[in-house]
Amino acid sequence: MERWEGRRSVANADHSVRGDAVADAGTRTGLTRALLWLIVAVLAVRQMAVVLRQPPGERLTDLETWTGENGVLHVTGSLYEGGRFTGTPFAGLVLKPLTASAEAALGIAWTFGSLLLVVALGVVAARALPAPVSRRTALLAAPVAITLLMLSLPVRNTLHLGQTSILPVLLVLLACFAARDHRLQGVLVGLAAALQPALLLFAALLWLTGKRRASAVSLATFAFCTAAAWAAVPKDSWAYWVHHAAGAGLGERPDSLANQSLHGALLRLGFEGPGEIALFLVLAAAVTVIGVRRAVRYAQDGQLLLAVAVTGCVVVAVSPTAWQHQLLWVLLAVVGKVGRRASDRLVWPAVVALVIMLPAKMLLPNVGLVIPLRDNVLLLVALGAACFAPFLLRTSPYWQRPVPTDHAKPVAARFRRVPLLPFWRRVLHRPNLLLELLLIRVVYSAYAQVRLAATAGRPLAEEHGRQIHAIEQWLHIDIELWVNHTVVQITWLREFFDYYYLTFHFIVPLTILGVLYARRPADYRWVRSSIGFATLLALVGFWLYPLAPPRLMPGLGFIDTVHGVQDFAKPDYGTLTTVTNQYAAMPSLHFGWSLWCGVVIVMLAPKLWMKALGLLHPLLTIAAIVATANHWVLDAVGGALVVSLGFGLTYLLSGPRKLVAGEKETAAEPVKATAEPAPEPVRAETVGK
After folding, report:
1. How many CB atoms lie within 10 A of CB 517?
2. What number of CA atoms fall less than 13 Å from residue 141's CA on the CB side?
3. Distance between CA 47 and CA 33 in Å, rounded?
4. Which of 163-172, 367-376, 508-517, 556-565 has the lowest mean pLDDT?
5. Comparing C-alpha atoms, which of 641, 639, 640, 631 is closest to residue 478?
6. Residue 408 in contact with residue 659, Cβ under 8 Å?
7. What residues have CB less than 8 Å from 298, skipping those under 6 apart?
8. How many CB atoms are located within 10 Å of the residue 290 CB?
9. What is d(CA 624, CA 630) in angstroms, rounded to the nearest whole number?
10. Which residues pair with 391 in a beta bridge?
11. How far apart are CA 63 and CA 87, in angstroms?
């Protein structure tokens, strides 16, 4: 009896511990969900404020063009005179009643209504995730989806212009995931196609997935709406469907960057005339066949949301014009799972999210070889989702159990009093190269933008320059003027320091990162984090303490050896300040990054002569920044401080750089194809029920 009581007490204790753990997990999920919904509310308020704070002539420009006092819906005559209205004649009939509304009230109601459509779109998409879905994912999916939508370029563009492009997407999603009756599904898809004709492709998806009644009703609804518009406005219908080839000739120039369709890309690449049209039709037909077949396959596999996203991406590619505010389908493609390894699962969603949220100039540099990629990056992602991305099927054994990631065994701090906060686990293998290059480019673009934005008035920057100069005089380290004039008198030395200042600042850090990525991936992650933290801290310095470098201090006699003589009579000192912030001098990242290079080389280089070269680089850099009058000596001290803090933060958050040799955390064995029975494929006729 006593033994049984003891076992029961142990079981109760174990149950209590598990219950507490489950309760803690639930509490954390609830707090996370509340925080995400708070972010959604903040973004919504911000979007309303951004739109409504614009002057009347600059906000909701498309809506004002349609319904304003002199808008095309007010003025008698054709809707399509001047190309200001690009919607279908049916869309013109739907918008016509809005002309009776007051302009200010209409703007507020339109913006608020558009935000409600975004929320509804996010909720429907979150509930349409393919099963099985964990409880945590189900609770967090809606606010995450709405956040991504609000941050996306199509939604921001739609809210700025006052466009209607969110509505057709929502109508299609409601037809696929909310409507149960096939006739209602067809009506919703038909209405969406009446607003945007290329969406008739979803009628083909319905037909091929067994919903033939819904497909027929969608075609009938589209025909009825189009015929009604033709009866009401025959001249406008003729102009839209015949003269402008279903709206292909309306709006901006089709070869502009705003048109992210195959037609726009071919025009930008130099194709034109009948040859371009024939090539476009051939490519569009191929993309349609491949994309729709893939969509049907995913629908039959139970991934209807992915099938809808793939079909939408096909619409983007094959439409004669696919403007930025019509590209929400690309964002929906994040639901697809790509890759057998757990470490690869975030690559596709991250690439899609970055492409759909950031302008192309932040993703790729202005270099000749990559300009065609940069100009068509949204189209390339849409084509990838439609035709090439190897999305996993639910029948794959890797769907729920991908190959786990190898992590290093945690290492204790070298110093007992250092309170480590292991925020992330050390991954042993190298990160995905495409995503890594993309992230490095995005971070650098953000750094350049913030640095340029952190400007201040010339008087404040010069006042800070006088403060630094006074401190250096008090410390007896004000050697900048002597070094600058000495180097100027030695031509070969001046040319050497000018070249060193302009060249090695980027070459050496990128070379170190490239070598470590290829040969020492675990160390690469650690040192990459350290330089990232140092750069972020430097941005804080640029923002809080704008500082004029010696070359921009009038009256002190410094000679700018790199940029030439400055005209202090001009407030902006010529055109150089349009390229970079001239007052982002404290701390000096020229010296900071060079010091980071020296420390990394000393830590990791196998040869003594390599370590010596590593130490030589920061010494030459500090000599170059002082000799060229681009920095004060104390700027270098600031650079050393942010680099030290970068290494320190990385140490606290991820532990020591050096790992225990040959040890890693135990992980589950890779899933084999016969490890467990695969889930049954979902039949086409049950999809969406």
Report:
1. 18
2. 20
3. 21
4. 556-565
5. 631
6. yes
7. 304, 306, 307, 310, 391, 393
8. 16
9. 8
10. 338
11. 12
- Judge whether 319 and 251 are in contact, CB under 8 Å: no
Number of Cβ within 10 Å of residue 429's Cβ equals: 13
Angstrom distance (rounded) from CA 37 to CA 27: 15
Encoding tokens for residue 47? 């979007």
Nearest by Cα to 464 from 558, 585, 545: 545
Tokens 């390229």 -> residue: 579
Q: Which parts of 78-220 are beta strand (E)?
A: none
Backbone angles phi, psi at 527, to 5 degrees: -75, -30
Q: Three-state SS for 408?
A: strand
Q: Residue 393, CB half-sphere, CA atoms under 13 Å: how many?
A: 15
**Given this model, what pLDDT does residue 459 score?**
77
Phi, then psi, of 78 in degrees rounded to 5: -75, 145
Question: How confident is the model over 201-211, as a mean pLDDT?
Answer: 94
Q: How many CA atoms lie within 13 A of 212 on its CB side?
A: 1
pTM of the model: 0.81
CA 674 – CA 335 distance, rounded (Å): 26
Q: Is 114 exposed, middle or buried (0-12, 13-18, 19+ CB in 10 A)?
A: buried
Separation between Cα atoms, residue 95 and residue 162, nearest integer Å: 12
Q: Could you read off the pLDDT of 227-236 as tens digits, one per residue?
A: 999 998 888 8
Gap between the Cα atoms of 498 and 619, Å rounded:
15
CA atoms within 13 A on the CB side of 89: 25
Are the C-beta atoms of residues 328 and 309 closer than 8 Å to each other? Answer: no
Least confident of 18-22, 144-148, 197-201: 18-22
Number of residues assigned to the chain: 689
Structure tokens at 256: 């502009």
Tell me what the mean pLDDT of segment 363-370 comes to: 80
> What digits encode the pLDDT tens for the residues 398-428?
988 888 877 777 676 666 666 666 667 777 7
